[in-house]
Here is the input.
Amino acid sequence: MRHKKSVISGAFLILLVLALGTVKWGPSFDDALTIPGTPAEEANDVLEDAFSGAATGAQADIVFQAPEGEALTDADNQQAINDLLTTIQDSDEHVETIAPPSQLQNFNDSETVGYATVTFDEPAEEVPASSVENLEDSVDQTRDQGIQTELTGDIEFSGHGIGSGEILGIVVAFLVLAVTFASFLAAGMPIFSAMLGLGISLLLIVIGSNFVNIQGVSLSLAAMLGIAVGIDYSLFIMTRFRKQLAEGHSVREAAAIANGTAGSAVVFAGITVMIGLLGLSITGIPFLTMMGIGASISILMAVFVAIIVLPALLGALGHRITPFKSNRFLNAFTRTSKGDRPQNKWGGFVTKRPWLVTIISTALLVTIALPFTHVNLGLPTDGTAKQEDTTEHKAYDLQTEAYGEGVHATLTTALQVDDSMNQQTVQQTLQEMSTDLEELDAVDQVAQPIPNEAGDTYIVSVTPTSGPNDPQTKNLVEDIRSFSYENTELFVTGTTAVNIDISDKLQDALPIFALFVVGFAYVLLVLVFRSVLLPLKAVLGFLLSLAATLGFVVFVIQDGHLLDLFGFPGESAVLAFLPIISIGILFGLAMDYEVFLVSRMREVYTQTGDPQEAILAGMRDNGKVVVAAGLIMMAVFIGFIATPDAMVKSIGLSLTFGVLFDAFVVRLTIVPAVMKLMGRAAWYMPRWLDRLLPDIDVEGEKLSHRKNQDK
Here is the structure.
């Protein structure tokens, strides 16, 4: 506060420097979700060596549907398609080759649908924006002639940035803060500080994408968390600051005490969330590790801004941030009085009926969790990740209708033969393999083998009868990999096989990561609460809310309920890395709410020895802040549900209901009810263990006690 002008201007200077760096380097995100070492990736390496002379540039498919009552093979339609392809070839130097439908012979049976393939001279992430725009503009040529023309392929045609949904979430968060603080000026401070931290973190991630492989979804995840925790952390500090002002402290003293107490809790909360996110690295999955690192950067910047820049801002505004004044709505929900004993309406209701509340709340969450028992994990396709009005989704639907769902799940089967095999034996083996493939029930079509230049590797394209995320397709990949032929090595790859291997790897990593999170949470809470039973209750509560969250996600996304309400384009498999991401994020948030609520109870219990009074005091003093923080988190995450990107939308859905279940059902309902049932046993700690463990002062209570003694 003594250097408030320097701190504030320094923060904006950092933001400016990073913005200039972003202008210089620009974004360079790699949206390929790959895991080195999986069977499909190893097969890709083999094929790259065997077909090293083949084109490696990005490909885009132009899908055509003839006007009603006509065929694409009609002379006029053929001429219109050829004119379009000539225009694209002549107008873009980055287009290497174009194969029309007549050359590829991919017309459907009625010859009403077909597609051309455009091959560029650069990989997808390096294709210039001008080439993408040229392709998008050129297809209007055939559309104007009545031929439906849509685009799909390696290139992104439907981008997404921060839109109306995220802005709406921030507006709702502002209104929650205005209700909480009963002041529009005070409500704006957490929003401002959160956006400052968010800006710095996102610019760092964009610049970092030029030096390490970072997926585009990492930016959305970082934005989602950066906004939510940035607002919440500032809320915690400002609540304490206004309370100190109301007690008669000067602005400088109020800011110092707030930072020493609530600021300490913010540092602890931030570190907890970051550990959960950085713990994603133990899965050994590179893109998941980078997502965790990117999100951790946004958390770190939120903490830095909250404990460094926010106090400077409070010093600049001074008493214009009005002293602590309670809101009538929150008071009606959280506080009442009965003699000299602290009371709380909701806390009183819960503690009077602990068995009933615990049973009903637990049964509710268990019921919501049941759909997770039949979860099907997968990765997005254009039919599930893109909204219905996008050209990719329309192209997906056209190809599905014309060729079947399996056209999107084509498998690349490669056979590498030994040098000792003569040509006749090779051909016999290839024929045997083709026959074996055709006899599989899940196979729709088997293409002719294509050899490499050396003649030692052959590619056979296999079209399944089912879609990319269908369990039947996953079983088909396993069946093909089980084939064995003498003196050969067989591989299965392609986008579908790669995605299946990623889903399997993520599913295998899920219990390992969950065990890490649960173990870490228990140890952490034992240190904080000086109890062996309270942490067990907290961990079980987290697992309960997590199961309900994932069950609800399966209920909506996979089972197809409430799709229109949340704006999903259709039923789909659950995003393969969603469970792990949800664990990493919700773990940190759940521990934040647990510590913030129960640490106050512990403080009162150590002073009074009365467990009932401790519960009510914690609910009275910190319950309303947990309510406000939960509502703010949900408001921000709901904003991301409103985005058109189904991957971001599904993460937003998971986090929204994760906060709802954990903050409101577990922390504010089950926790006080179970603590009432446990009584004094909740605070049991063996003396020998208490002496061994370090004392962690999460909320700076020693500072508060010293301050009171000085007074």
In short: The chain has three domains: 59-153, 164-326+358-370+501-697, 411-493.
